[in-house]
From TrEMBL:
<keyword id="KW-1133">Transmembrane helix</keyword>
<feature type="transmembrane region" description="Helical">
    <location>
        <begin position="277"/>
        <end position="298"/>
    </location>
</feature>
<dbReference type="InterPro" id="IPR000719">
    <property type="entry name" value="Prot_kinase_dom"/>
</dbReference>
<dbReference type="InterPro" id="IPR025287">
    <property type="entry name" value="WAK_GUB"/>
</dbReference>
<dbReference type="Pfam" id="PF13947">
    <property type="entry name" value="GUB_WAK_bind"/>
</dbReference>
<keyword id="KW-0418">Kinase</keyword>
<feature type="binding site">
    <location>
        <position position="369"/>
    </location>
    <ligand>
        <name>ATP</name>
    </ligand>
</feature>
<feature type="domain" description="Protein kinase">
    <location>
        <begin position="342"/>
        <end position="625"/>
    </location>
</feature>
<dbReference type="InterPro" id="IPR045874">
    <property type="entry name" value="LRK10/LRL21-25-like"/>
</dbReference>
<keyword id="KW-0472">Membrane</keyword>
<dbReference type="GO" id="GO:0004674">
    <property type="term" value="F:protein serine/threonine kinase activity"/>
</dbReference>
<dbReference type="InterPro" id="IPR017441">
    <property type="entry name" value="Protein_kinase_ATP_BS"/>
</dbReference>
<dbReference type="GO" id="GO:0016020">
    <property type="term" value="C:membrane"/>
</dbReference>
<dbReference type="InterPro" id="IPR032872">
    <property type="entry name" value="WAK_assoc_C"/>
</dbReference>
<keyword id="KW-0812">Transmembrane</keyword>
<keyword id="KW-0808">Transferase</keyword>
<feature type="signal peptide">
    <location>
        <begin position="1"/>
        <end position="21"/>
    </location>
</feature>
Length: 664
């Protein structure tokens, strides 16, 4: 058997050398090349520098020439120079870094607004986010735009904002000198600074050029003849075809002529015959190798036990690691997690997923969330990492790292010293004032607006509630726990979901019953409204006080008080200003919990209502209010009992006629 394989190998080497004797084919003239930095340049890219391995321009797509210069591999797009750090020929994508911006890693100062035109078949990848830079602004921008302290000079500041759209209230023109939009990979921001994210670059996808489709489908290579301004199809038998509808299979059927171009000489008939003989030898040898390989495999399988079929969760984890491999620098082992938490010494809280422990990462306090069990093949864990990795906002909690082993899973977040919102609003001894409650409600709304409109992909949270709102040392609210989140394109107004998700008492009606409408970003608005009402009324919103077996439900009670223009008297003493804040928050909450999603405002409109005057706010129509039949903190996978809907008392019937629908 050994002698057979040695003979077969010698035969293959002879055949290959014979076929290489003729380098006049385009496949011989256009070999792959490697730059000094290790980048492999193959079709449809070609090497254009003045080096002995440079390729003729007809060896690939127009504009796909790469200049290997010392440690860089330069691709020119729209007159800008980009360093190509990676080319993935399998999924047709490449990673680029703006050379001009890399020189300012510590303090990013980007100048280039890259515009992709129709001349090249490039498009931005779904893995990209967009950084909007605003330079030398004389007036402070809104709070969701982060200031770049390193670029702040006397009287002028620079800012950046993450998102593929510009909020209506971000009016920078006339205030800032310049705006530059820069794409970055969505995982870059959670590893470090903005400058580091820019240094990691962004991803472009390329598509097969329209004029090259038929050529490549027939196993040819597409090139370009500058002298004739014509695309060409190079066939592996030496024939050259113009793009007038002929492809390589047609060439082969016609003897390899195809009205041949003369960029280089076609293969002679003798050499073509030699190539055909070589091809026959290769085919026969390949068949023999396959047969022998199969025999060896069958023999080895008899001596080995059949391995167990891997669980679906393993596949999901591996797929996650492939798709979000850019997050690798924030991945930690389980032993690292134990060291951070001092073997889980200080417990901060407990949930259905597991426990949260205090730890230290590089000397800074962190919160480590341990996932005991993963439901749905680990999808909640993957959801949380994938969703929050796309975010960068002052009102969204920051993910610092994660542990993703087969059995152990953990998430590492920034530590929030003031805990979760529920510990404050349900504590009767809490000294949290109305002004603070208002600022927290406004901050949460801004965070939700960012999730719904500011990210490259729209993120629906599906579990907005006080327990999932964390407070930093300044009581700035941070939305957390993205385990139930769903991603969608910003163009999708209605989302399909096969199961109800969320916490009973906060779930929008349409989430568990399609009779109420489609699931959309308005579902998060409903949860937000229930939470705001709970912030105003404390425990009254779900711990019902009963009198003569009739349930007193806070939203219903508050609606009637405002309708009849009665004082709220929620707490012992309230100033006029506090009464106004409470009424404004109640009206916003009642608008948000409308049963019909079309009657709920978008979260951007909610922000306008909170920041506006109470006098101009309209009274919402009477909602069918959900009676909260639940135990505290229960989270819904599938409803265990139907939620009860009841109309308000007959004294409120007069408001039925007013129906207001909010536009998107």
């Amino acid at each position: 058997m050994q002698l057979f394989f040695i003979s077969l190998l010698l035969l293959l080497l002879f055949v290959i050398n014979s076929s290489r004797a003729d380098n006049t084919t385009p496949f011989g003239y256009c070999p792959s090349s490697v730059c000094d930095n290790g980048l492999n340049i193959s079709y449809p890219f070609w090497r254009l520098d003045n080096y002995n391995s440079a390729s003729p321009q007809y060896c690939g797509y127009t504009g796909f020439g790469i200049n290997c210069s010392q440690s860089n591999s330069i691709l020119y797009i729209s007159d800008y120079s980009f360093n190509v750090t990676k080319i993935n020929y399998n999924n047709l994508s490449l990673t680029l870094v703006d050379i001009d911006a890399v020189d300012h890693k510590g303090c990013p100062r980007v100048h280039n607004n890259l515009t992709l035109n129709d001349d090249l078949p490039f498009e931005y990848s779904k893995l990209d986010l967009y950084l909007n830079f605003y330079y030398n602004c004389t007036v402070s921008l809104p709070g969701y735009a982060d200031r770049l302290d390193c670029l702040t000079t006397s009287g002028k500041s620079s800012y950046f904002y993450v998102g593929d759209y510009e909020p209506d209230d971000l009016k920078w023109y006339g205030i800032c000198e310049k705006k530059v939009v820069v794409p970055v990979m969505d995982g870059g921001l959670i590893r470090g600074s903005v400058g580091a994210a820019i240094g990691e670059g962004f991803v472009l996808d390329w598509q097969i050029a329209k004029e090259c489709g038929k050529c490549e489908a027939s196993e040819g290579r597409c090139g370009y003849d500058n002298s004739k301004n014509e695309s060409l199809c190079f066939c592996n038998d030496g024939a050259i075809s113009g793009m007038g509808g002929t492809n390589c299979r047609d060439c082969q059927n016609s003897g390899g002529q195809c009205g041949a171009q003369t960029l280089y000489a076609s293969v002679s008939g003798r050499n073509r015959l030699g190539l055909k003989v070589a091809a026959a030898f290769i085919a026969a040898a390949g068949t023999a190798v396959v047969v022998c390989g199969l025999m060896c495999c069958l023999r080895s399988r008899k001596t080995n036990k059949t391995p167990k079929r891997p669980k679906r969760e393993v596949h999901n984890v591996e797929a996650f690691q492939r798709q979000y491999g850019s997050l690798a620098s924030t991945a930690y082992s389980y032993s690292d997690i134990k060291k951070m938490t001092n073997s889980f010494k200080e417990k901060l809280g407990e949930g259905g997923y597991g426990g949260v422990y205090k730890g230290y990462l590089d000397g800074h306090p962190v919160a480590v969330k341990i996932i005991k069990e993963t439901k749905g093949n680990g999808e909640e864990f993957i959801n949380e990492v994938a969703s929050i990795s796309r975010t960068s906002h002052v009102n969204i909690v920051t993910l610092l790292g994660f542990c993703l082993n087969r059995k152990e899973k953990a998430l590492i977040y920034e530590f929030m010293p003031n805990g979760s919102l529920d510990k404050h609003i349900y504590n009767q001894d809490s000294n949290m004032g109305w002004e603070m409650l208002y600022k927290i409600a406004l901050g949460i709304a801004r965070g939700l607006e960012y999730l719904h409109r500011g990210c490259n992909s729209r993120i629906l949270h599906f579990d907005i509630k006080p327990h999932n709102i964390l407070l930093d040392e300044d009581f700035c609210p941070k939305i957390s726990d993205f385990g139930l989140a769903k991603l969608s394109t910003r163009k999708e107004s209605i989302m399909s979901t096969l199961e109800a998700r969320g916490t009973i008492g906060y779930i929008a009606p349409e989430v568990f019953s399609r009779h109420f409408g489609g699931v959309s970003h308005k579902s998060d608005v409903y949860s937000y409204g229930m939470m705001v009402l709970e912030m105003v009324g404390g425990r009254k919103n779900y711990t019902a006080e009963r009198s003569h077996n009739s349930e007193i439900y806070f939203p219903r009670w508050a609606y009637q008080r405002i309708l009849l223009d009665e004082e709220l008297n929620i707490r012992d003493t309230m100033t006029n200003e506090e009464e106004e804040i409470a009424k404004k928050m109640i009206l916003v909450g009642l608008w948000c919990i409308q049963t019909d999603p079309l009657q709920r405002p978008a979260i951007g409109k909610v922000i306008e209502m909170l920041e506006g005057s109470l006098e101009v706010m309209q009274m919402p129509p009477k909602p069918f209010i959900c009676s909260p039949s639940r135990s505290e903190g229960s989270t819904l996978e599938r409803p265990t009992k139907p939620l009860l809907f009841s109309t308000l008392s007959s004294t409120l019937e007069s408001t039925d006629s007013t129906i207001v629908q909010f536009e998107e």
